[in-house]
Amino acid sequence: MKIKEVSAKFNISADTLRYWEREGAIPPVSRDKAGYRDYDDEDLDWITFAKCMREAGVSIEYLIEYLTLFKQGDTTLQARKDLLGEQLETIAQRLHEIQHTYDLIKEKTEHYEAHVEGYHGKLSQ
Prior knowledge:
Blueprint: H1 3-10, H2 14-23, H3 41-55, H4 60-71, H5 77-117
């Protein structure tokens, strides 16, 4: 799969894909005879992981560290698990904060709904 197709599939710019590869946030992508990137299923799996992590607010530096450990093999399983655990805790905290914000806004919306439904002034016609 060529970069344009991957870009469209994941809704990520080709520049971002090149950047992730150049920085080491995803593994190097093999090239065809003409020198163009030729993404395979494994590459797509790495992009899925990187995109998911970035959408969760995980830094590029974290992805680079994770990939570096991954390349070192099974001796880094615990370190990779620890890194993911740290990110899971961070995301759980943000999720809690977002839920609190959601609950507050929902409460305010319900408050206004009650007032709007009970309003019978000039604007209600």
